[in-house]
């Protein structure tokens, strides 16, 4: 049989195209890549302390050196340009910019971001700056951290100082990355720095993080920021048995903690009733002062969505969803019969589609952007190649889900892969690799994985084949 050459018009039709102007890029975070932990006036963050506490982080790994991006940023930006990235989402290290947490600005700390931003712009890459991706100055934690209302005001001071220096070149700003993790993993389960285990502290942190967000939105706008956003790790929470009202009540509670407590406060003008009742149950409603909810609801221009995995819950007697979920007595997470990543996280891209459609229905009018999505796999570097077909499969499936949601009207403006580089994966240290670029931590050699090459093609055609 003679092979028939494929009709190019068919290939053309098979391409799933994203809207004109869709923003493509990758994300990182300061503590995960910078290193240079004690340079140019930087003081320790809560993650430096946590990493040094025995038993907290895999093999005691710390971010002291990480990807040495602080010294190698020029090469890293060149690599981003080679990969065709149009947007780069990074975070600033609070203890570089304000070593005393609340005191004077350290110009040398800001100088680094100034150089980074210029380097990005000179390569045609749009910088997107996040103020807080978890590296709170330890000096502030010593004064209560996010359980202390003052921290919210100090975040707004950081916002003002940073936008004053970079606002002429950085158009898009994000206040917080995943405050759910800061509050509930940092102060509830203790799986993240500062490692506290106290439901009251976790709920206080929720309110102060949100207050800090609102105050920072205002500070950023006053400093001329053009596009202001918040990034949440939103969950698609499914019931074990959709016909069981108890399971549905369990879903509602977990959905409240992961999604509505943040979304309603920011986009609907106040805490939802059930979450306000939860705050009251733990005595934290006292922390909500008159006017706070109006500050928290200061308008934003973009909602960042970080998505990794779906969750499934059911109701049961004598169970809980654990200390990261205050008030979850009678609810439990159930295992899902799905393939998993190296993190053990279940993979199901339809959950991202459902989440985007739900956001479009319940919180219309706010443009969305996928500010993190990706997966860790046990990559193997052979010569100068990492054949990470599983990561390509993950990214491809999630991009198809985004495309489907966009086709049905979800206002998604862009997609950023997590992460540009393999990096310090918090309590997992360097043991988990999320990068589309492999990092050899002995030599700091960067090697784009097959997924990076694949992503370059996706960006180039603004779509999927
Ligand atoms: C997100 C974090 C990011 C990274 C990915 C895997 O929760 O924002 O720093 O750790 O997970």
Automatic annotation (TrEMBL):
<protein>
    <recommendedName>
        <fullName>Beta-glucosidase</fullName>
        <ecNumber>3.2.1.21</ecNumber>
    </recommendedName>
</protein>
<keyword id="KW-0136">Cellulose degradation</keyword>
<feature type="binding site">
    <location>
        <position position="133"/>
    </location>
    <ligand>
        <name>substrate</name>
    </ligand>
</feature>
<dbReference type="Pfam" id="PF00232">
    <property type="entry name" value="Glyco_hydro_1"/>
</dbReference>
<feature type="active site" description="Proton donor">
    <location>
        <position position="178"/>
    </location>
</feature>
<feature type="active site" description="Nucleophile">
    <location>
        <position position="372"/>
    </location>
</feature>
<dbReference type="InterPro" id="IPR017736">
    <property type="entry name" value="Glyco_hydro_1_beta-glucosidase"/>
</dbReference>
<comment type="similarity">
    <text>Belongs to the glycosyl hydrolase 1 family.</text>
</comment>
<dbReference type="GO" id="GO:0008422">
    <property type="term" value="F:beta-glucosidase activity"/>
</dbReference>
<keyword id="KW-0378">Hydrolase</keyword>
<feature type="binding site">
    <location>
        <position position="32"/>
    </location>
    <ligand>
        <name>substrate</name>
    </ligand>
</feature>
<keyword id="KW-0624">Polysaccharide degradation</keyword>
<keyword id="KW-0326">Glycosidase</keyword>
<dbReference type="InterPro" id="IPR033132">
    <property type="entry name" value="GH_1_N_CS"/>
</dbReference>
<keyword id="KW-0119">Carbohydrate metabolism</keyword>
<dbReference type="GO" id="GO:0030245">
    <property type="term" value="P:cellulose catabolic process"/>
</dbReference>
<dbReference type="InterPro" id="IPR017853">
    <property type="entry name" value="GH"/>
</dbReference>
<dbReference type="InterPro" id="IPR001360">
    <property type="entry name" value="Glyco_hydro_1"/>
</dbReference>
<dbReference type="GO" id="GO:0005829">
    <property type="term" value="C:cytosol"/>
</dbReference>
<feature type="binding site">
    <location>
        <position position="418"/>
    </location>
    <ligand>
        <name>substrate</name>
    </ligand>
</feature>
<feature type="binding site">
    <location>
        <begin position="425"/>
        <end position="426"/>
    </location>
    <ligand>
        <name>substrate</name>
    </ligand>
</feature>
<feature type="binding site">
    <location>
        <position position="177"/>
    </location>
    <ligand>
        <name>substrate</name>
    </ligand>
</feature>
<feature type="binding site">
    <location>
        <position position="308"/>
    </location>
    <ligand>
        <name>substrate</name>
    </ligand>
</feature>
């Amino acid at each position: 049989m003679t092979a028939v050459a494929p009709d190019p018009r068919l290939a053309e039709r098979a391409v799933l195209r994203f809207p004109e102007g869709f923003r493509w890029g990758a994300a990182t975070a300061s503590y995960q890549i910078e290193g240079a932990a004690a340079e140019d006036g930087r003081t320790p963050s809560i993650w430096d302390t946590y990493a040094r506490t025995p038993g907290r982080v895999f093999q005691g790994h710390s971010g002291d050196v990480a990807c040495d991006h602080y010294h190698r940023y020029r090469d890293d930006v060149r690599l981003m340009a080679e990969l065709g990235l149009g947007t780069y989402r990074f975070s600033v290290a609070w203890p570089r910019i304000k070593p005393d947490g609340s005191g004077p600005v350290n110009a040398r700390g800001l100088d680094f971001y100034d150089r980074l931003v210029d380097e990005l712009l000179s390569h045609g890459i749009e910088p997107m700056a996040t103020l807080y991706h978890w590296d709170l100055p330890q000096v502030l934690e010593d004064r209560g951290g996010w359980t202390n209302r003052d921290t919210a005001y100090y975040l707004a001071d950081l916002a003002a100082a940073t936008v004053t220096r970079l606002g002429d070149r950085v158009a898009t700003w994000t206040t917080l990355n995943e405050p759910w993790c800061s509050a509930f993993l940092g102060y509830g389960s203790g799986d993240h720095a500062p490692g506290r285990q106290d439901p009251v502290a976790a709920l206080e942190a929720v309110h102060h993080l949100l207050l800090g967000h609102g105050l920072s939105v205002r500070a950023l706008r006053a400093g001329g920021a053009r596009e202001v956003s918040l990034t949440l790790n939103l969950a698609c929470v499914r019931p074990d048995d959709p016909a069981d009202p108890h399971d549905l009540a369990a879903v509602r509670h977990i959905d409240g903690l992961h999604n509505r407590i943040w979304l309603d406060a920011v986009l609907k003008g106040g805490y939802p009733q059930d979450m306000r009742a939860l705050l009251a149950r733990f005595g934290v409603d006292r922390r909500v002062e008159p006017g706070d909810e109006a500050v928290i609801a200061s308008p934003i221009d973009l909602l960042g969505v970080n998505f990794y995995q779906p969750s499934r819950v059911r109701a049961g007697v004598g169970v809980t969803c654990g200390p990261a979920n205050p008030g979850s007595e009678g609810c439990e997470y159930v295992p899902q019969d799905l393939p998993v990543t190296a993190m053990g996280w279940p993979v199901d891209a339809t959950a991202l589609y459902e989440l985007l459609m739900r956001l479009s229905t319940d919180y219309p009018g706010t443009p969305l952007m996928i500010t993190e999505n990706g997966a860790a796999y046990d990559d193997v570097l052979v010569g100068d190649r990492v054949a990470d077909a599983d990561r390509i499969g993950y990214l491809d499936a999630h991009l198809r889900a985004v495309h489907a949601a966009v086709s049905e009207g979800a206002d998604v403006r862009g997609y950023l892969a997590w992460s540009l580089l393999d990096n310090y994966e918090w309590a997992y240290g360097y043991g988990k690799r999320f990068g589309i670029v492999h990092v050899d931590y002995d030599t700091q050699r960067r090697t784009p994985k097959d997924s990076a090459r694949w992503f370059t093609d996706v960006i180039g055609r603004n779509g999927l084949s």
